[in-house]
């Protein structure tokens, strides 16, 4: 019964997304007793779309999304899930119709006119913020995110005892407060919000953002990078937690709301020079990404410092465009780089908040005053108030 329902659900997704396409369907069933993978082939596209129905059912629970299939009925009928779903639906609807709407307008009116799409969007110091990455760069084929926060593991929704639901959804809500209210994750808060028994890593919020923005999940695999810079997949997230490797990550394959196959990589690692100097495999992996676009927000001004030179040089040497607030790469590094950069400025440059008061950039302030800037229409970064926040788009000049 579940298999038949799965097919109908996915076919409906494709037909609704592109009513003029003819659809052929093949069903591939994994014999692990849990996951059914459904492959949908559209005659007008070369690539097939693969949807993991079991994984999506789990992600819907994590996101407070009610679905019509019969998986996890005992959870979907619980008071804790229904309360979370009802309240978060309202919260997300307000967020989507206000803040996300403003971000999409800025992308359509400004970013899309200045930036040439690249297959890879690189977003270091991101935490689990696939939300802004996808909103600003919907044409990227893969997203590579880096943060200190652990990957975590999928929750066990199969157990009949539902007493864990209330603390789980409470932690989900609290971990989202900063990003939904201020546009960035607070590093100190993330140490508590994503390192506890209920919500043990970024995987939970990555799933939530993907589902809430209309994506369907194809797979989620624990991964690390070997000494040659190659992906190395592991059997389970439990094994990932135990391995002795400086890079622990996840590969999430998904189908976005426009029915494009995409990949998301999140890597938990230390990006300071001291750690990357001994992490040749990951440096090889980054160099292998080729030409990229880079997004930086709420980056704690780390790349203003001399001991974050390796990650900074990867960005400066491989990016066609860098889109950032002032907490990303200090302006002086663009000017002193061997490449020539063009700058488009948005918002208003103000002195950094008190915590980062020593990171004021007189040269960037001078550029804003000399060149002028266009309004953003929203607040972003640490100075998230509309009149205080800033965005800079740096474009390499050939």
Can you describe this structure?
It is a single chain. By secondary structure, this protein is α/β, with parallel strands linked by helices. Helices cover 38% and strands 21% of the residues. The protein is built from 14 helices and 13 strands. It has helices at 2-17, 53-63, 73-76, 79-114, 130-136, 165-182, 187-193, 203-212, 237-242, 273-276, 280-287, 309-318, 331-335, 362-371; strands at residues 23-29, 36-42, 49-52, 120-123, 142-147, 216-225, 231-233, 248-255, 261-268, 292-296, 319-324, 340-347, 390-397. Helix 2 (53-63) packs across helix 8 (203-212) and helix 4 (79-114) packs parallel to helix 6.
Give a quick rundown of the structure.
By secondary structure, the protein is α/β, with parallel strands linked by helices.
Can you lay out the helices and strands and say which pair or pack?
Blueprint: H1 2-17, E1 23-29, E2 36-42, E3 49-52, H2 53-63, H3 73-76, H4 79-114, E4 120-123, H5 130-136, E5 142-147, H6 165-182, H7 187-193, H8 203-212, E6 216-225, E7 231-233, H9 237-242, E8 248-255, E9 261-268, H10 273-276, H11 280-287, E10 292-296, H12 309-318, E11 319-324, H13 331-335, E12 340-347, H14 362-371, E13 390-397
Parallel strand pairs: 4-5, 4-10, 5-9, 10-11
Antiparallel strand pairs: 1-2, 2-3, 6-7, 6-8, 8-9, 11-13, 12-13
